[in-house]
Structure formats: structure tokens, C-alpha cells
Design goal:
The chain is of the alpha+beta class and 632 residues long. The chain is built from 15 helices and 31 strands. The chain starts with a strand and ends with a strand.
Length: 632
């Protein structure tokens, strides 16, 4: 039965906010991400693939009502109090079952404590009882207890039921969860959630247990009504009644292909999808056929690129020079000196030919423990390609342990078509897990450090900047230089109207003769607590072609890195004002600063060789700089 807790006189009225972390995803995307990630995390035998089945079906509402009974009040009454409307007749449902997984293992009693006096945790308690709490267990892909939120919000009834066969104690349990709002019924106030289980001693909720005689009928009925395929195999079966219409056969397939192509490609994952009229199995052999059928051409190119990446990783990976300090010094990025000269020439040649190239980068993770700092050696891979014939532009993919981190790497302003940052090492994946937002879509410095598990964020900084650094090395750009690509680099040269041959009017203004600048006349480079701007190697060529003329003006904008957008556009005036000469020092050569306000500097360049250097920024924060050529 469903137990909906009443609100006590000392408790706060509140609703869960965790589902907001999925706002950028469709319902199918977020459901697929949470379901498959959790199943991959629970894999038992790494020599065999995890198998996951998504199966759609229908059930009579009268039969479904048998699962909506509650304590004192049916769950239906509470759903209506929260604004949910329920219809009689057939109700759609979705079953998600995984195999070669351990199920919801670990302690069952939410009120137990370990020998040190800490509340016990584990898969079961994290799934059924925790919300918004970080799970510090090693090997777990998630760390915020939001899986059940996504399962419940995939249903227009806001609930799900789950049957788990546990690998640790071989128990078979049934639980359920319903995500409600704070609400009232019959002049009583209720909290924003409900759990499906049995009430013991008036105030304790426990799962149904198939080994208990009174509970066995629930298991048999659930398996029969929702056609569960699990017999005695360990794993988890989730039933989502009232699944939303846009979570359907095709959208599930598209979501899993675009998010989990890599574990399918490597043979770590097999997925089945079924509805009343269609059935498909997606594995390493059938992947590309299904990709071509369901994804668009750009998405197909990404999956094909991932296949190239794996091939390079096996056959043509380039490693750093032994003994390099790369990955151990905060702020130290990838440089050409980190590689053998012959290897660097191979990389640059292949990249120039439009091929994908890849490197392996070492890092050192500094983990805190009772004895001090434990240094863990790890590594990750960076791949990049600039294929001018490809439809892809600036397609950066960050993958941690088979999970795509979707909102990382989208702001790299360099001319490349496809890139991957690939982390498959367990220790580094564990490190990055603790930097992720609840939606597993980006890595955040503060999120990592506030958990006080690691001594520093150096590996994360190296990973976040690795694509930019690797491109600079391949393109021969000096250390920390950034060639700006965001110039308003079009001159409009418009001739005045002329007499019309047919009579004394004026002809329409002709189409302007447009000239474009393909290279920037300046580069930006970072320095200790600041940055500099200087002439690029293209400035003479641009002057000779009269695309620019001395003097010309540059506008430079700055901002500290932000998790909600790029740092420049999210500049906070409380952070700093560049016009404060007591804090900021600006040195120039062959340039004159003509305007300073807030985060912006405007300078006039009076010679083809020039420098502007700015110091005074907080060295503990990441600085973002953007420059543009001011057209007159």
C-alpha cells in the first residue's frame, strides 16, 4: 500500500526541486540517461554486457487501481489533490528491466547505523530513501539520489513500482515511489511524496519481501499484470504506469542511440525496445544499421567518429614524454614539449590532412584519507579532427565511463569539426563523478571541492581545457594564445547610386562588395593573475591586403568563469572594475587604451607589433577573455 506522510507542526512545506536539473532534456532523454547509467553502474560480470529492455504495454485502469491503495486514503485522492486527472479505460505503461546487474543491494533499514555511528547507505537506501544527497561509494556513477525523481516524473501519475532481485542476499523485494506536491486532504496536510511498502510498528516502512507468506501474492500479481520477464535473475524491474505519450518506441531509441552509442559499440550494453507492434534489439553488430535509420546525418557522423576514436585508441595513440609534470601542476596545460618531436610532427601532419588524431594525457588525483593525501596516477584521452568536408562544426563530446556529459565543451571557439575527451579509467571517473551536477551534464569546480574528498581540482582543470590546449599545439599557436574567431570581420564597401540609362532616376544601391578576414590580427594569452594581447603572425598579411589599416581598434571583454553561461556575458560588476587602478595594472606597447569601464577595455593599435598586458585578477578563479576588432 501507499504511505503518504502527514506534515508535522514543526516541519516545512516544500516540494522537491531536483527535477529542474533535467530541464534541458526531453522526457525520453532524461529517463534513458538515468535508467541506463544506473544499470551500467550495477554491472556484475564485466566480461558480459548489461542487457536492458524497454517494453510498452497497456493495463485496464480498474486493474491498475489495485496498486493505488493507500493508508487511510487511496493514492488517487492525493493525486487529485495535487491537480492530477485520472481517466478510466486503458492506461499505458512502460517496463524497464536490466540483467547482469546486482539489483538494489545494501542495507534495507533506513534507520540503521554503522560501527562509527553514521547512517548506513547503499544502492537500496540511496534509491528509495535519499534525495539530493551525495553518495560517496566508489564505483557509483550517480551521486545525488535523483533516479527515482526521473522515473516518477515520467508518469502522468507521478509514480512507479519496482521489483528487485538482490545479488548480495538473494532477496526479492517490491517498493514504489510517488512524487507529489505539498498538499492537503480532509483538513490534513501532507508532504510531497509517498512510498509503496508495508507499515511496521506504526511508523516504519519496509519493502514487500517475496519470502514473506503474506507478501507473495503481490509479486505474482505484479509479474502477471505487467508481463515482467524476470525470473530469478538479479537486477531491477521498474513499472511506470501512465507513462507520458512522448516517451514512446521511437523517442526511446533516438535517445539511447545519441547518448549511449559508445557502450553499445564496445559490446558493454545491449538494449531491447518493444511496443505492441514493433520490436528491436540494438547491439554492437546492429548499431550502425539502427543509427542510420533513426538519427540525422550529423548524429550519424558523431557515432562514426566514435568508431574512429576507438580505432585510434587501439592502433595510433600518441603518448606524452615519460616523466612530464603535465597533470600535476595547477594551471599547466598541454604543450608541444610534452611530446616527442617526431610524434608531434605526425600529429600535426595528420590533423592538417583532415584526419582524427588522439593523445593520452597523464593526471595525478590527490584523494584525502585518514593518513593524509593519497596520490593516484590516472590518464584520459583527447581526440580532435578538422574535416572541412564534414557537416559537423565544433562538435565536442565529453564521455565519462560510458556516460555522455552533454553540456561540456560547447564553447570552444576553434575551427574543428569533431572532438572527444574520453575518460575510461575508474579512478578518474570516480573523481569526475563528484564534480557533476545532478543531471550529469556538466562538471563544476565548486561541486567537486565542497565535498571535501579531494585535495585539489587540477585534473578537472586539465580536462576542461584539454581540447583548447590540444588544438593550439596542433595549430602551432604559442602557449596560452587564443586566436579569436568571434570578430565582426566583414567590411562593407558600398558605392553610391548612379544615373539610370533609361531616364533620370537613380539606380538601386548595388550589392556591397564584401571582403572577409579569415585570420585574426591579434592573439590573447593568459598570464599569472591576468592576460595579454599581442599581434598575431597574420597581421602583416592583413595590412598588405588592406583588410585592416593602422591605426585600428580592439575591444577586449573579460569575466570570471560561470556555471550558468560564459563568464563574459555573465560578468558581475561586484567582481571587479578594470578602471580601478589600485587593483589593475595595464601596460601597453604601440597601443593606447582609450576606454576602460567595468569588464571592457578599448585600445587603439598604432603599429603592427604591439602588446597589451593586464594584471590584477583573482588567480584562484578561471578568467575568460574575448576580443574583437572594432569596425568603422
Amino acid at each position: 500500500m501507499w504511505i503518504i506522510p502527514e506534515l508535522g507542526p514543526m516541519e516545512t512545506r516544500q516540494d522537491s526541486k531536483l527535477d529542474r536539473f533535467f530541464d534541458g532534456q526531453t522526457k525520453s532523454q532524461s529517463l534513458v540517461r538515468e535508467s541506463i547509467q544506473n544499470s551500467l553502474d550495477a554491472q556484475i560480470d564485466s566480461s558480459k554486457p548489461v542487457k536492458i529492455a524497454f517494453r510498452f504495454g497497456q493495463i485496464d485502469f480498474e486493474k491498475l487501481k489495485n496498486y493505488l491503495n493507500g493508508l487511510n486514503n487511496d493514492l488517487i485522492i492525493h493525486l487529485k489533490a495535487c491537480g492530477k486527472s485520472l481517466n478510466d479505460g486503458k492506461t499505458n505503461y512502460l517496463v524497464i528491466e536490466d540483467f547482469n546487474t546486482e539489483g538494489l543491494s545494501g542495507p534495507i533499514d533506513n534507520m540503521e547505523f554503522d560501527e562509527e555511528g553514521n547512517p548506513v547507505s547503499g544502492n537500496f537506501i540511496g534509491f528509495w530513501w535519499s534525495e539530493g544527497l551525495s553518495d560517496k561509494r566508489r564505483g557509483s556513477g550517480g551521486s545525488h539520489g535523483v533516479g527515482k525523481i526521473k522515473l516518477s516524473t515520467s508518469s502522468n501519475l507521478n509514480c512507479f513500482l519496482a521489483l528487485t532481485n538482490r545479488n548480495d542476499d538473494k532477496k526479492e523485494l517490491v517498493i514504489g515511489y510517488c512524487q507529489l506536491k505539498y498538499h492537503s486532504v480532509n483538513r490534513k496536510q501532507f508532504k510531497g511524496y509517498a512510498r509503496y511498502g508495508k507499515l511496521i510498528d506504526s511508523n516504519r516502512i519496509f519493502p514487500y519481501d517475496s519470502k514473506e507468506p503474506d507478501d507473495e501474492i503481490i509479486f505474482n500479481q505484479l509479474k502477471r499484470d505487467f508481463d515482467l520477464k524476470r525470473n530469478h535473475e538479479t537486477g531491477l524491474s521498474v513499472v511506470i504506469p501512465g507513462v507520458y505519450e512522448d516517451i514512446n518506441f521511437e523517442n526511446i531509441i533516438r535517445s539511447l542511440l545519441s547518448e549511449f552509442y559508445l557502450p553499445i559499440m564496445t559490446g558493454a550494453l545491449i538494449v531491447e525496445v518493444h511496443d505492441n507492434t514493433n520490436s528491436i534489439t540494438i547491439d554492437s553488430n546492429s548499431l550502425m544499421k539502427v543509427v542510420v535509420k533513426y538519427l540525422d546525418q550529423k548524429e550519424i557522423n558523431v557515432v562514426e567518429g566514435a568508431s574512429k576514436m576507438l580505432e585510434i585508441k587501439k592502433t595510433r595513440m600518441i603518448y606524452t614524454v615519460p616523466g612530464t609534470d603535465l597533470g600535476t601542476v595547477r594551471g599547466r596545460g598541454i604543450e608541444s614539449k610534452d611530446f616527442h618531436e617526431d610524434d608531434m610532427k605526425k600529429l600535426q601532419y595528420r590533423f592538417g590532412q583532415g584526419e582524427m588524431v588522439g593523445i593520452c594525457i597523464p593526471v595525478v588525483i590527490k584523494e584525502k584519507n585518514d593518513e593524509g593525501i593519497l596520490e593516484i596516477r590516472s590518464r584520459f584521452y583527447v581526440f580532435i579532427q578538422n574535416d572541412e568536408t564534414s557537416e559537423l562544426k565544433h562538435q565536442a563530446n565529453y564521455i565519462r565511463d560510458r556516460l555522455l556529459i552533454g553540456k561540456e565543451g560547447t564553447s570552444l571557439g576553434k575551427p574543428f569539426s569533431l572532438a572527444f575527451v574520453y575518460i575510461d579509467d575508474t579512478d578518474l571517473s570516480e573523481f569526475l563523478k563528484h564534480a557533476e551536477d545532478p543531471g550529469h551534464e556538466r562538471w563544476i569546480y565548486n561541486t567537486l571541492l565542497e565535498k571535501d574528498i579531494y585535495a585539489e581540482d587540477t585534473p578537472l582543470r586539465l580536462i576542461k581545457h584539454s581540447l583548447n590546449d590540444f588544438y593550439n599545439v596542433l595549430a602551432g599557436i604559442e602557449e596560452d594564445e587564443t586566436v579569436e574567431n568571434i570578430l565582426p570581420d566583414i567590411f562593407n564597401i558600398t558605392e553610391s547610386g548612379t544615373s539610370d540609362d533609361r531616364g533620370g532616376g537613380t539606380s538601386p544601391t548595388p550589392t556591397p562588395d564584401i571582403k572577409t578576414i579569415s585570420q585574426s590580427p591579434f592573439v590573447i594569452f593568459k598570464k599569472q593573475n591576468g592576460f595579454g594581447v599581442k599581434n598575431s603572425k597574420y597581421v602583416s598579411e592583413l595590412l598588405e591586403s588592406e583588410l585592416i589599416q593602422i591605426p585600428f581598434q580592439l575591444s577586449i571583454q573579460t569575466g570570471y568563469a560561470s556555471i550558468v553561461g560564459d563568464g563574459v556575458s555573465k560578468y558581475n560588476p561586484m567582481d571587479y572594475d578594470l578602471s580601478n587602478s589600485e587593483i589593475f595594472q595595464i601596460d601597453t606597447e604601440n597601443a593606447e587604451v582609450t576606454h576602460i569601464k567595468d569588464n571592457t577595455i578599448v585600445a587603439t593599435i598604432i603599429d603592427k607589433e604591439f602588446t597589451i598586458e593586464v594584471r590584477g585578477f583573482d588567480s584562484n578563479r578561471d578568467l575568460e577573455i574575448k576580443g574583437k576588432l572594432i569596425m568603422k
